[in-house]
Amino acid sequence: MAIINAPAISTGKLVKTVSNYYMRMRETGISCQDIRPIMLFGPTGVGKSAAVEEIAEFMEKESGKKIKVVDIRLTSCTITDLIGIPSPDKDRTKTIWLKPEIYEAEEGYDEYIYFFDEIDKANPSVQAAALQLILDRKAWTHHFPENTYVIAAANPARNTKKYETRMSPELMNRFKHFNVQPDYESFRIWGIGQKIHYAVLGYLSYDQSKLYAASESEDVAFPTPRAWKSVSDTLNAFEDVCKDIREIHFDLAGELGTGVALEFESWFAVYSHMPVIKNIVEGTETIYPKTMDVMHALIASLTAYVVSKGDKIRPEELRNAIIYVSRFPVDFATLFFKNLLEIDGMNLLLMKVPEYVAWAKKNRI
After folding, report:
1. Which of 212, 195, 211 is nearest to 203 (CA)?
2. What is the pTM of this model?
């Protein structure tokens, strides 16, 4: 059965849509048991798993409830992982099923999200047990903890953009469906909060097409949001010991593929032509970049500096950075200020900088 009409949605929009759906349903008195399970279709590495974690974080922040995500990778499960192991009772007259640990409620949590990943690729017997869990919140005599939401996920078939599933139309109709697609804006907002390396954010703002570029060939390494997160971790790990990015070429190529890795390394070289961040925040820098690639790199680097300081940034540093970037073309300055507005508490600090207030009023940001 091909899936062709699920609405496309970015990960950022998905988080807010699902979170608000769950909270609104609960506010109107509907139990978790009666809230429809959700199915996420989306290409590998797009961020479905991360989005589920963000849904829990968003709901915790908005509702004040403690929420636990239970991540179940169905391709690595056997049926006993879901329904337990048969064992005779003490009289040896009946069969009882030992309860798997996934059903145990943990002290301190108010609600749960059970996430069944790769449901379309699971063994048929595992899939059947999982589907009973998803629809009934129980398998045989085992029940999920009270107040449990259920989300499942599936990927397109290998080397194709088509989604195929062995589940029947009647069963698929039990789900609320979303087609999760790569989106740079969602990745940018998420990346700022996660302190993704400034070079990754700078490069992707320069060439957004490289956020997700899965190949239709047999390539095993290609750029995805998941791969870029790993690239960020690698850059952070080697930053103090690596003098030339080419020293970690094989690490990057193993994540992104050789072609994209070489492009990223070449782009990274623009940092040698970039004004010094320390001079900018101290108000002594007089040189301004003239090319788009350097401007993207500089905005990403300045954003990373402000993120690292948070609300402890000195007012004069913030003001100097704003004055400097305000002289950039409007679209580049707008990107910088949008980045700053994604940082918790920064909005209040920005409103105390006259130069920002004047620029925002003039350009209606």
Report:
1. 211
2. 0.78
